[in-house]
Amino acid sequence: MATDTVTPTAMIAELRETTALLRSAQTRVFVMAAEWADAHPDPDATKRSGACIHGCPTEGMPGEDFGGGCANGCVGDPDGFDDPFIPAVRWDAPAAFGAAIGRTTNAASFLIRDAPGRAAPAALGVGPGPDR
After folding, report:
1. In this structure, what DSSP letter does residue 41 have?
2. Buried b vs exposed e over 80-97: b needs ≥16 C-beta within 10 Å?
3. For 2-14, how does the pLDDT look when each residue is reduced to its tens digit (9 = 90+)?
4. pTM attached to this predicted model
5. Is residue 70 exposed (0-12), middle (13-18) or buried (19+ Cβ within 10 Å)?
6. Whole-number Å distance between alpha carbons of 100 and 96
7. Residues 43, 125: contact at Cβ < 8 Å?
8. Could you tell me the CA-to-CA distances from 70 to 48, 53, 57, 83 in Å, in that order?
């Protein structure tokens, strides 16, 4: 019975290829989180101003401007879900998204919160999925 000898060079090449595929898939999930957020806006959300709703300072050291975001993290919103620059999603959107990707609702909420905006797919080099 003949056996194939796998060389370290071939193994490294396969590892690199597999890692590239993994990164591409993870990037696509990240982009889909943004698309999911866009598809599930909170109809009851009010338009938020650029100021922190908890009254945090919006300027840090001289020359630092956080554009309305909290300068040192928000004590009233440590997870950043009330950031005025993050669009609000429907209350049930993270649960379905999390179930689809095998993550908790809380983990899905963070992924949706951190996902890029609509222009990001082109910037990330990720096109629409194959079924679109």
Report:
1. B
2. eeebbebbbbbeebbeeb
3. 557 889 999 999 9
4. 0.62
5. buried
6. 6
7. no
8. 14, 10, 6, 8
